[in-house]
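Budget justification note: compute hours in this period were largely spent on complex prediction jobs such as the one shown. Inputs:
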Amino acid sequence: MLFNSLGFIVFLAVVLALYYAPLFNWTGKKAMLLLASYVFYGLWNPPLILLLWISTMVDWTAGNQLAKEERQNIRKLWLLLSMVVNLGFLAFFKYGDFLLENFITAANGIGWDFQAQPMDIILPMGISFYTFQTMSYTIDIYKKKIEPAKTFLDFALYVTFFPQLVAGPIVRAKDLISQFYESKKATAQQFIWGLFLLTIGLFQKVVLADTLLSGTSDKVFGSKNILHGMDAWSGTLAFSGQIFFDFAGYSTCAIGIALMLGIILPDNFMFPYASIGFRDLWKRWHISLSSWLRDYLYIPLGGNRHGITRMYVALMLTMLLGGLWHGAAWTFVIWGALHGIYLVGERLLNKVIPVKLNAWNGILFALLTYTLVNFTWVFFRAREFSTAKNMITSMLFLNDEGEKILGSFDIIKVFTVVILLFICHWLMRNTNMKEVSKKTHPWLLGIVWAVMFILICIAQGSGEQFIYFQF
Amino acid sequence: MKLKQSLLIAILLSIISLAAWEIHWRSKPDYYRANLEDDRYLWAQHRAKVASATENDVVIIGSSRTGFDFNTHVWEEVQGSKPINLSTNGKPPLPFLEDIVENTDFNGTLILGVTPLLCFSPGVEQRNLEAKMWVDHFHNQTYAQKLGFWVSKPLERNLVMLTSSELKFYNDLDLKALINTISIGERIPPAPKFLNFGYNDEDRNLIMFSSMVTKPEFAEKVQNVWNSFLPYIPDYEVIKDVVPTIIEKYQEPAKKFKARGGKIILVRHKAENEWNMHTKRILPKNRVWDKFVELLDCPAYHFEDYGFMSKHTLPDWSHMNAEDAKTYTADLVNQLIKDNHLQKTN
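Corresponding output:
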């Protein structure tokens, strides 16, 4: 089910009514939320709820056994079981065809004439998100950082909680399960703020991403021709804005909806396009994934504890796998590799040229970071390397005769939205929406809220899927 | 934070603004009216009926001319049963023919409306892909999408401001369409600004706005849209190597459908003035239509061969107004009955 659909509005209204009606005790409310979450997921493809159930059962059992078991080798086996099941699902459903395709290429490359039909496996919505979430639970118990959930209901709801089930934020057990232990009810302020966040999230998705930017990005990246530099830049900038508004919009909706239920989810984006450098970027972009990769991949790979070379290797590996997490294609690996190179390069440069930041050079570095990020988005969005290559050469203005496919207004529209986005991120870099809202006159906040809501209604939207659902 | 105050202001402003927006568009009944959008969801609802259709039933496929020129209510009055209307505005019928042949057991009568430029001219592959998306939607639609469609029905039926189309008409009322009316400079050649000039009922009959007849300037605007691209489509001589391949794609599914007892009737609706002139130039009847009929070996009705098919004047040179569509439908159904291609069921 999509947040930007009328069906979801009805679903949410029913859930809220049941949640706040004096019908259930807290356990009953949690059971209702769990059932609602299965309905939320099942309305997309009912049989795939089975995967959620298997993942839930396996990690619930593994978690309990890990908490009880003292023998280290047995504990390792329980952890291994959880990893095999979760990563096995991910490997089969998400990477099955990709692995087969590459196996065929490799086999043919060594002279073995092997052919096979693609398996055409359905990608279960949000599998990468809930898999990482349940794995973090088991790993944290294995490392004795947390206790198992008190009840199966609490754990099942942690895995399935509908606001963040299919596209995050990826929430750690310690942050979410503990909230389920005591009765939760949003205060009036929390409820209204949640509604405001839901409006902002939908505005980002429906108006900014789908209405203003997606058309340009689709047109440019769908072109088979070599494009004029201005068109290539417009398409890439449009995509950079689209993916931010799409994904941050989803996260904002998720946080808002949870807050309307009295549940607090962590921030997932902190105005990332005003990042100064790539370390800063990854503290601001998809925070729940980057912190997951840091804690469960980068640090176990050695982190910065075993010298500089190993740290760089760990960093590169983390970013490569982070790229692959986004999709089963080599273009995503290149996207991850570029970010890895940027991170390593930044650390090396920092040692050679120490820079003292101030407001003036800060914005220039932020602009440089954003420009470099845009080159990575080309690989993220392009479905083929040939498209990416053409786009990059056009963006470097190496294709003098590139085709013009965008009208002047399209270009102006994209640049206006993206410049405003950048300025907004820069101004908000050291604050947050709540702080700004507190300082805003209630009338002005109300007008802004109304404008967003009216534009959402007029935009109508055609229930475009969120980009990150495919990951 | 005085959030309650902000919320109240937001609610009040939203209600006032949206009401004003709705009233504004309601004041233009010549161009806009509230109706359930003829989108892939409504199409899928009708496509589902084919599963229970019998050999006595009729299914109509084709594009906008078929949608505007036929009226299934009149068809029902004349023949006795209402055909299932699966015609699709702006899309060629091949993917729908293939879908019915491959994914159903239907063996009744299939009326295939042909608009040559849409069906047989180069570039049809892209149009076929767009049509295939509707077929895929029918087969893959989720319960969430069905719920969304069900919830949206009362809103679409009652609010003019929700006028919008998957065909992205220039005069749609969604924000994207409104923004796209802004144009600055001429960096690239302008794309045709296709206009919506009708609405649909819930049986998916397309009904031309009466203002297309009463206000010649509206019809002229639509004619100008056709003129903005028709003259630039190359002559038959340029595309003659491609066209036969496109036509032949209909042969296999038609053969399969007939082999299981189904009957296909081909209908070439009227076009006039520039539409007809350019169609003749690009896809001449003797090189394309005649070849198509021969290949499919089906009963065929071409507007030039029957007086009742060519007697009406088309406001935009391509589609019939609502009143003429009623007469045209009755005449054609009577002719089909007379020729023993259909039986009366009432």
